[in-house]
Amino acid sequence: MKKRITAVLFISLLGIGACTEDKTIAVPKENPNTKPVEPVKSIYDTMIDYQIKYILSTQLADGAFTDTKNSGSRISPYFANIACRALLKVPTADNISAVKKWMVWYMNKLNGHINPVTGNPEIAGSIYDYYGSGQTTNGTYDSVDSYAATFLSLAKDLGVISPSDKTWLNGYSSKLILIGDALEKCIDNQANIVPSTFSPDDNDGLSVDSYVHGAKYLMDNAEVNEGLKSMIWLQSNVLAQNNAAHFQTLLDANTSGIESQLWRGTMYNWNDNGSSGATNSKWSVFYADATCQLYPGMFGVINPTSERANLLYSTFNSKYPDWYKGIVYDAGGYPWAVVCYAAAVINDKARVDVYLNHILSFNTAGSEKPNWYIAEAAFVILASDKMKNQGNTPIFVPTPITENPISNNLALNKKATSSGGGNTESLSNDGDLSTRWFSAVADNQWWKVDLGSVQNISKVSIKWEGAYATDYAIQLSVDDVNFTTVFSTKTGVGGDVNHSFTATDSRYVKLLLNKRIESIWAFSFWEFEVYKK
């Protein structure tokens, strides 16, 4: 057909054999029984379509979303907030309506100052988990900070994606401000006295999950960081409060706190345990230690394409190499589809595509992967949308992994002794950053390691626990009798410290512990390491 039309056009242009009106070209008619060929959907669109249907299938008539389609399932505001953010990636009128119904449900459930179940004081603007079709509550939640932060981020998403709904959001200004106040109440600064049973009240700008637990989790703080950014946008574009500068101050303090209190040079602490500089996260622990390493890049605390984000993601893959094949590493069987979203953020197309195909293998069979919650559905939607809209984001190229040269630590697993204490001295030179020795509760203690032979050493590293020494010294000896001081300080500040000195032959390395930071504590450190020149 194409050749025939071309030939006629060519003859016509030459003026040869002019066609009369009754000499028309016969064009074959389409067979009315032939169905038009629909374009093949990408894996991303297929995933988005299926999982949006799954999320919508869990919405109740009053707007609440249950965690799963199972009868009696929980209504987790945190999961539902994430699910609604995913729905907005396809901002149809129906999806926007479903999101707004959820937001109204959420805002109508905000707590006052008293827990109606326990009678205890409550953070106004927080919200509880609910259960079953009766929507009963025990007056509990997983957190206050993450629930509030993810809702504020949802509100911003709605305003950005559907600008006409900024007026609708403005109609709920008092509720949004109350939720922002609840988030701010969780932030440790001079205005708030946060619980110190789990994490310290040291005005570091980090958020506690709630006043029930008082834990400063990295995951929560990454979400809070994004939530504060969202509140700044809402203040500037929706609310009449004009308080964006105040939330910018909170954001700056939170970002600084994550960097100073939770980043430990090679990985993040999964929580702030009050020991500045001490590392208690381990790659061998999937949740929360390993998974939380992905959150700062995923939620924009750090640049997701930065060297640090790449190294953390690359290390995660080296420790958990088959997550994208659908292998579940979580002890409770939770799929952790959020890892797929982290992979999409860093543009690891190869792993994302394999994981999505794994999930679709369940979907095409009419089922879901075991333990599949609406948050899991949301994260694969977000991952698919991210892959569709990567723009100029470079394809992920893994950073070569160089393990910490712990084998060069001359003190590792060598015989250690001390002036006495509550547990075994070797717990502080076993290479495990979750174990520690601690002394008797008194000043003027000591800890010593025998390297087994004379070595030419020039550096000692100490990873202090919160009970660190302010006045201490490092001494060396070849005979365990005559010791020479190579380093001393009266202004120790704890944390992870390195002390270098002139290379010296030594077999015995002693740490003199002269004065404690607090008289009620012993001396304690996670690891003591010794290195050659």
Question: What is the level 1 CATH name of the largest domain?
Answer: Mainly Alpha
Give the topology string: H per helix, E per strand.
HHEHHEHHHHHHHHHHHEEEEEEE
What's the N-to-C terminus distance?
81 Å
Main β-sheet description: 7 strands, antiparallel
Radius of gyration: 30 Å
Assign a percent range to the helix content.
Answer: 25-40%
Instruction: Please identify the structural class as seen in this structure.
Output: alpha+beta
Mean pLDDT value: 91
Query: Unreliable segments (pLDDT under 50, ≥5 consecutive)?
Result: 1-25
Q: How would you describe the shape? A: globular
CATH architecture of the largest domain: Alpha/alpha barrel
Q: State the total count of DSSP E strands.
A: 9
Tally of individual domains: 2
Under CATH, the topology of the largest domain is which?
A: Glycosyltransferase
Q: What is the tally of helical segments?
A: 15
Strand content: 5-15%
What would you note in describing this structure?
It is a single chain. The longest helix is centred in the middle third of the chain and has 20 residues. The chain starts with a helix and ends with a strand. The strands form two sheets. Strands 3, 4, 5, 6, 7, 8 and 9 form a seven-stranded antiparallel beta sheet that branches. It has a two-stranded antiparallel ribbon with strand order 1-2. The chain folds into two domains: 346 residues, Glycosyltransferase (Alpha/alpha barrel), CATH 1.50.10; 127 residues, Sandwich (Jelly Rolls). The chain is 35% helix and 14% strand. With 533 residues, the protein is α+β, with helices and mostly antiparallel strands. Helix 2 packs across helix 14, helix 2 packs antiparallel against helix 15 and helix 13 packs antiparallel against helix 14. A hairpin with a 6-residue loop joins strand 6 and strand 7. The protein is built from 15 helices and nine strands.
